[in-house]
């Protein structure tokens, strides 16, 4: 009986020690971090999204808070009402509110 209890304690101890070792992320070298930083700075300098030319996947990818349904709604509004005259006209699209427009205003343009 005591050996069964002892083996249970040893098993519990070994499993509790192995969980943090498996869950810990692997350390990355400094060389692998440098390209990521360069990619992030290149992404920050990307061009603005043109509301009159962008397709739904582009809108979904580039604008924060815009999922598939809102991106499709923007494209559908543009197709039924013609090109956007200004960025503020985006408020006419169902599901797009002032907060969402303000969050993405610097990423948007109309040509």
Radius of gyration over alpha carbons? 26 Å
Unreliable runs, pLDDT <50, ≥5 residues?
A: 37-44
How far is it from the N-terminal to the C-terminal residue, by CA? 81 Å
Q: Please work out how many helical segments DSSP would assign.
A: 5
Number of strands: 2
- How would you sum up the major sheet? 2 strands, parallel
Q: What general outline do the C-alpha atoms trace?
A: rod-shaped
Write the layout of secondary structure elements.
Elements: H1 2-23, H2 30-44, E1 49-50, H3 56-62, H4 68-81, H5 98-104, E2 108-109
Parallel strand pairs: 1-2
What does this entry show, briefly?
The protein has 111 residues and is mostly helical. The chain has helices spanning 2-23, 30-44, 56-62, 68-81, 98-104, and strands spanning 49-50, 108-109. Helix 3 (56-62) packs across helix 4.
3D architecture notes:
With 111 residues, the chain is mostly helical. Helices cover 59% and strands 4% of the residues. The chain contains 5 helices and 2 strands; from the N terminus they run ααβαααβ. The protein has helices at residues 2-23, 30-44, 56-62, 68-81, 98-104, and strands spanning 49-50, 108-109. Strands 1-2 form a two-stranded parallel ribbon. α3 (56-62) packs across α4 (68-81). The longest helix has 22 residues, at 2-23. Mean pLDDT is 81; it is low at 37-44. This is ComEA family DNA-binding protein. Keywords: DNA-binding.
Q: Which features would summarize this protein structure in a list?
A:
111 residues; mainly alpha; two-stranded parallel ribbon; 2 strands
